[in-house]
Design a protein that fits this description.
β6 and β7 form a beta hairpin. Helices cover 35% and strands 24% of the residues. It starts with 5 loop residues before the first helix and ends with a strand. By secondary structure, the protein is of the alpha+beta class. It is elongated, with a radius of gyration of 41 Å. It is built from 14 helices and 26 strands. The strands form six sheets. It has an eight-stranded mixed β-sheet, with no helix packed on it. Strands 11, 12, 14, 17 and 25 form a five-stranded mixed β-sheet that branches.
Amino acid sequence: MLVRGRAFAFALLAGVVAALALASPAVAADGEKVDEYATAIVINADASLDVTETITYDFGDNDRHGIIRRIPASFRYDDEHNRVYPISDVDVTMDGRPVEFERSSEGGYQIIKIGDPDDTISGAHTYRLRYHVTGALNDFADHTELYWNAVGNEWEAPVAGATATVTAPVQITRAACYAGEATSRLPCDRATIDGTTASFAQGPQRPGEGLSIVVALPVGAVAATEPVLVPRRSFANSFRVTPVTVGVGTGLALAGVAGALLLAWRVGRDRRYVGLLPGLTPEPGEGAVEERQPLVGAPPVSVEFGAPDNVRPGQVGTLFDERAHVVDVTATIIDFAVRRHLRITELADKDWELTKLTDGDPTFLPYERELFDALFSTGDTVKLSDLKGTFAKHLSQVREALYADMVTQGWYRRSPEATRTVAVVLGFLAVGLSIAALILLGVFLGLGLIGVGLVVAAVTFLVVAWFLPARTGKGSAMLERVKGLRLYIATAEVAQLQFQEKVRIFSTFLPYAMVFGLAERWAGIFADLDLDTTGPDGTPGLYWYGGLAGWNLAHFNASIGSFATATTGTIASVPASSGSSGFSGGGGFVGGGAGGGGGGSW
């Protein structure tokens, strides 16, 4: 039979794919065989098929649950589409009675698993499968054709004999069949036509051999012979560019970005007091009114020559960037030393010793008391190295207390960390859901661009989430003064400081310089000044810091830098984990049609 055109190319390709993928069938259990395989196909006027397969399967002495029928239902059609054969109305009986079965899809196959997982059977049993198929006919210039694998070449058991019949609504004009291994062009044992019925037969077949049949009908004998095509799952068709995908995707992205920015505008902007100069707060009882800070036109910063309202370094660092960093805690330890509550002594082995001088200060803020008591929980003297791996739990409590202090001072209405955490968690959740939607829309509907719009919106919200904590009017007023303190530390010159209380000025502002990231500069401008670098016991150092032999202020920049680095790493360290090393056209052939597949027992 001479077959021409695109349908033949598809059939050839489908057969080759099936042959390459499934040319090595598994071996059935000993003694299992198919005694009879009869396929009856009715071609309906609407070009659909009603298929009945009668399979007498002999399990021999093996105890099995039943059989599995695997029916190919999807083949590659072209670069952009797969051709599918929708299967519906599946009905199964065993020995003339209804039987339990499960239906699933996998790798382009419809899988029908027949039998009761709680019961076993042996010997010969007859299974009858009925199902409805659409989209299986092919149109050619001179005929309409059904090309069907009546017995697929994927069966795991030998087939003693096979028959097939095709009944059409009109006269069948031609019939052919092929038998043997995949791609075999050998004719089957018998192919006959009797009006509207074609009959086929084939003798014994080994595992991996099949029977393919072909019948031809007059052109126009049935309706709706177009193949059923679905887009192939590829990057290109997952992100199809159409007016709908571009329009909706762009719209969602713009709406999401606008919504996130509106949220930042409404919620994430700091407040300020109405009618007051920058940095000022209203007197108690004045009933001050707050408004959102403008996006542009920030007021000029006025220099502060001291810590405003005696604000502490840890408070300054947290208010300044809305985060209680470890360096804010480290600066607080140095501030304790400057305020004569402890002394820091440098040791020869790159370690430091903290010596408790007082029981603290009645004016300690809650986070300061938490930190001070934690430092000396084991005694009045502690080496910095002794805190490694044990202080992290205290650090977490100190940072929580710092955030709580932001609310206590009235600088935030709620903890900035809690606000940011909730918003960021929601942001990551939105990103995760939008990525899931992107995958589903792209893979199953080809609407990936719409998913991209959702992802852009979600990512924008996630970025905005980091900036949602907003200061109150009181917090903004204090921030302006803190900026003035930073300006002083960032711009002070040696000539301005020579005639002041040098050690006091240097020491007092050092913890603040640390939280601003200006400690190196601050220590540098004092390095050449004639400061008294003798500690209270006559050793090199300052009244709050004891250095090694030969130490002077020129060494302090390196000393305090090393101390800050070591402290930051030490108090944040957690206990090390234990475990092992991380290094341990030329006509038809078997398998070229639709249907077929195979099966076996389970």
